[in-house]
Amino acid sequence: MTDPQRDPRPADPDDARLTVTRTLDTVDPDQWNALAGPQPFLTHAFLSALHDTGCAAPPKGWAPYYLLLRRAGVLAGAMPLYVKTHSRGEYVFDHAWAEAFERHGLAYYPKLLAAVPFTPVSGPRLLARTHADRVRLARGAIELTQSLKLSSLHVLFPQAEDQRALEEAGYLVRQGVQFHWENTGYGDFDAFLAALNHDKRKKIRQDRKKVAAAGIAFRWLQGAAIDDEALAFFHACYVETYRNHWSSPYLTLDFFRRLRDDLPDALVLVLACRDGQPVAAALNMTDGQALYGRHWGAMEFVPGLHFETCYLQGIEYCLAHGLDRFEGGAQGEHKIARGLLPTPTCSAHWIADRRFADAIADFLQREGDAMVAYREELEAHAPFRQDGASLPGTPS
Fold first, then answer.
1. In the chain, what are the helix, strand and coil shares in percent, each to the nearest 5?
2. What is the pTM assigned to this prediction?
3. Helix pair angle (131-147, 160-168), 10° resolution
4. What are 26-67's pLDDT values in tens digits?
5. Residues 35 and 78 in one domain
6. Do both 195 and 88 map to the same domain?
7. Backbone angles phi, psi at 4, to 5 degrees
8. Would 54 be classed as within a structural domain?
9. Would you say residue 332 lies in a domain?
């Protein structure tokens, strides 16, 4: 596609028209944000920061193709889409599908992706106010996939109302799991600990004592309190995490500066300090209802520091600020011991080749059954007391 915009389908009878734009510069931020809702990851500012700083841009294998639904010239729906030449930064793994295509002499890449780059957080993907418009967007994305002659279309971490529209439009649904903490009215951290069984409560207290004995104290910074020095230290920690895993980071310091400047209230930075000097950091984001754990790193190893900085401080922040939920990011069965329980997620997929679509549908059915059994097994290891009691100050 060479034109900056094009119509992938004819006008709808009610004067709703679908077009595609390659840049959010053509979209009014207020109209976009009114559809995106409160979650910061779908905001015009967040997505623009990813593109403008080069983190999610064509040279990195992320080519934006925003699907827009307008009615009487006003934005009535939108769908963030990317033509991808790889599967990195997605957190829903389809490498086996790509290998199967290659074994049969077919190209899996490029593919079309509906997602927030580098962000495994469930939320709106079909940005619209009605079910009918969400179905329009889902079908329009299929037609765009066909017009671009791509192998497939993948919608990652859609919310429940999007899933219903995607299924109506003919997508296959894949089941997944993440680990989230829910605030059931604990009041404070001691009350949360009292709800855990004896062994888990004792282990968390022991780990926290080790971190404190190492001279570590914590600071929470939000908004204007996150100065350039603190942000640069966090980014150095973030880069160190990737270096320790023999990998390269996706996000730049410029990107995080843009977030701090454009979405200051959405950022919550946890600093782990010794004698006033930071040694580790975790960056979270919030929409005022939930806290989303995103990135972390440390400049030295301290036993228990990772779990404390990334998870327990997040839970404590939620309790202190009355937030309903803490989402600890993708994967990680170890999170269960800290009170984060298995929570269903999903993705949706449309495969152009009918033979592969049928094979993948069969695979997803079997994988879905296994995922249900896996979640049930994880739930059996929940760390909470069987009597359901919550007694602050219960001795361990």
1. 40, 25, 30
2. 0.93
3. 60
4. 999 999 999 999 999 999 999 999 999 999 999 999 999 999
5. yes
6. no
7. -65, -25
8. yes
9. yes
